[in-house]
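Researcher: Quick test of sequence recovery. Tokens follow.
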């Protein structure tokens, strides 16, 4: 029964996203992409810090989709450091690139305008390669979130696919977190569940 409910839920999410994509012309730029590689690009959350081997959300998405996903996560990266190594994509023919950056900017008190200017440049670089960007949002603060509106502006301006606040409901809950900022296996499984329905559509 639980499996049935899960699959029905996934089907409904996929249907909703398909409606979103096709209800507006060119809502997601470069969709469908002619690229080949699926890539995850970002910081420690992409790398999977806090998870055991194979239980980070990138590995879980690869298992769910049956497609290999290149993990280009590097712990500690700010958006500026991510932008500086964007040429790592030169080795691939990206179809979909998941981008998750910004948390380290917040912790290092990088001005919010600089954070989102860097993210915009990263998105532009990826889209110029003919790939779809799947932008993954995070909160700019636990108490007052200044990031969500900025992520939505990027989504609208660059016509990316988007999953908001992938860490929603995980912070402060020991069953989901390995430390104060990184999920454990259970937490990464929750993140994968949130991303998978959107990723599935983009791979069509």
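Model:
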């Amino acid at each position: 029964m639980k499996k049935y409910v899960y699959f029905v839920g996934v089907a409904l999410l996929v249907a909703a996203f398909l409606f979103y994509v096709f209800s507006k012309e060119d809502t997601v730029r470069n969709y469908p992409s002619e690229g080949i590689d699926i890539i995850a690009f970002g910081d420690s959350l992409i790398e999977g810090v806090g998870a055991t081997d194979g239980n980070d959300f990138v590995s879980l998405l690869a298992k769910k989709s049956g497609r290999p996903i290149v993990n280009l996560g590097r712990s500690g990266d700010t958006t500026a450091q991510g932008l500086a190594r964007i040429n790592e994509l030169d080795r691939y023919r990206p179809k979909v690139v998941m981008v998750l950056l910004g948390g380290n900017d917040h912790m290092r008190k990088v001005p919010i305008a600089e954070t989102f200017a860097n993210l915009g440049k990263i998105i532009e670089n990826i889209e110029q390669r003919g790939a779809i960007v799947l932008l993954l949002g995070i909160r700019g603060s636990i108490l007052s979130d200044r990031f969500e509106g900025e992520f939505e502006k990027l989504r609208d301006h660059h016509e990316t696919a988007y999953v908001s606040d992938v860490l929603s409901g995980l912070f402060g809950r020991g069953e989901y977190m390995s430390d104060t900022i990184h999920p454990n296996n259970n937490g990464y499984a929750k993140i994968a569940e949130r991303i998978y329905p959107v990723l599935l559509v983009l791979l069509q």
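The two ends are 28 Å apart (CA to CA).
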